[in-house]
Design a protein that fits this description.
three-stranded mixed β-sheet; Arc Repressor Mutant, subunit A; 6 helices; alpha+beta; two-stranded antiparallel ribbon; Dna Ligase, domain 1; 157 residues
């Protein structure tokens, strides 16, 4: 499986070895599914995509592997309030494609929000700097989710 840029070994191989994990066919299949996913996938979604081509990979393996990937920092785990964890691949070894989420509490639609305004960027930088200083904490990332009612659900009322 090629890197996202199509050249050389897969970027996450070194992370697996560095954390003492083997690179199995099941793990590669799970990462492959996450790599091409166009939405946030649940463990069941990943299973439904992996299992037909890899019948030896069961749902328990999917859950276990996703937790390993989260702990390794290769995958983000989200809770959007619907009782199902969702997973998303961290965007690669170079630089992540940072975004926030808009979550509709009525239909549970999730919108990736990337159009940051200058004021928002400055507020986040100031907040991170203040928190880092106050708690002596080196912030490396953050997750922001906004909850409300999407435009489609608003029109339906």
């Amino acid at each position: 499986m090629p890197r996202r840029d199509g050249a050389g070994p897969v970027w996450w191989h070194g992370r697996f070895r560095g954390c003492g994990y083997r690179i199995t066919a099941g793990r590669e299949a799970i990462l492959g599914v996450l790599m091409i996913a166009e939405k946030h996938l649940s463990a069941e979604d990943v299973y439904n995509k992996v299992h037909p081509a890899n019948p030896a990979v069961g749902l328990t393996t999917i859950y276990r592997t996703l937790e390993i990937l989260v702990n390794m920092g290769l995958v983000f785990k989200f809770d959007f309030g619907d009782g199902r964890a969702r997973y998303e691949l961290v965007e690669g070894s170079k630089k992540s494609h940072h975004h926030h989420h808009l979550v509709c509490t009525k239909c549970m639609r999730i919108i990736d929000y990337t159009e940051f305004i200058n004021e928002e960027i400055e507020l986040l930088k100031t907040t991170e700097k203040g928190l880092s200083k106050k708690y002596g904490f080196d912030i490396t990332s953050h997750i922001i989710q906004f909850y409300g009612i999407c435009s489609v659900c608003q029109k339906g009322n």
